[in-house]
Amino acid sequence: MHGDTLHTYEPADLDDMSARPAVDAVTADIHDHHITVDGTGLFNATRHIELLCHLTARIAADAEYQLAPNIVDLPPSKDLGQSVGHLGQAIAQYTQALAPLITLTTAAQGTLQQKLDSLDHHSRLRIHLDDAGRALASVSTALEVPRPPAASSAPVPAPLRAPAARRRA
Questions:
Q1: How buried is residue 151: exposed, middle or buried, by Cβ count under 10 Å (0-12/13-18/19+)?
Q2: Is-contact 19 63, C-beta < 8 A?
Q3: Residue 2: phi, psi to the nearest 5?
Q4: How far apart are the C-alpha atoms of 43 and 56, rounded to whole Å?
Q5: Residues sharing a CB contact under 8 Å with residue 42, sequence separation 6 or more, in sequence order
Q6: Once rounded to an integer, what is the mean pLDDT over residues 120-147?
Q7: What do you get for the CA distance between the two ends of the chain, in Å?
Q8: d(CA 17, CA 13)
Q9: SS3 label, residue 2
Q10: Half-sphere exposure of residue 121, counting CA atoms within 13 Å on the CB side?
Q11: Confidence of residue 149 (pLDDT cuts 50, 70, 90)
Q12: How far apart are CA 138 and CA 133, in angstroms?
């Protein structure tokens, strides 16, 4: 958890944010609502998928608007398009995580074989969630605001004047 604040966002909350703050909001929500092997974890996983799907549609729409003339204050369409691709990867990983999560949430673990199977399911769940986290981090990277180049300490040369045109007499 980040400090004492628990971040909980609904898809509609993302509509009033620009792309990068919306990604940061979803990331904070995901970090604050862990996937546990119980009904709460299953609920959190489906909430995460819902937020990621909404965010993907939102950023895809921004990319489409960016391609239209006279639209300002949006990241370049290339960056938005890359972000949509990374969000798609995160959604795919969360979706793949549902199978081991549901199995772990509902299956009995009384026998040795069931416990061994549980280890495999935990491993697959962790791999998918870690891959989803990396994909979401790639979204943030794609939407980073480029920093202006460092100012040079060398003096800037004065602009050259264009030669004056001679008047013909």
A1: exposed
A2: no
A3: -95, 100
A4: 20
A5: 98, 101, 102, 105
A6: 92
A7: 82
A8: 8
A9: strand
A10: 20
A11: low
A12: 9
Residues 6+ apart with CB under 8 A from 110: none
Angstrom distance (rounded) from CA 15 to CA 54? 9
Stated as kind and residue range, the H or E segment containing 119 is helix 112-142
Amino acid at 121: H
Rounded Cα gap, residues 38 and 85, in angstroms? 30
Q: How far apart are CA 169 and CA 156, in angstroms?
A: 39
Q: Is the pLDDT of residue 160 over 90?
A: no
Q: Is 123 exposed, middle or buried (0-12, 13-18, 19+ CB in 10 A)?
A: exposed
CA angle 128, 129, 134 (to 5 degrees): 95
Question: How far apart (Å, rounded) are the C-alpha atoms in residues 2 and 25?
Answer: 12
Residue 69 has what pLDDT? 59
Tokens of 59: 């950023």
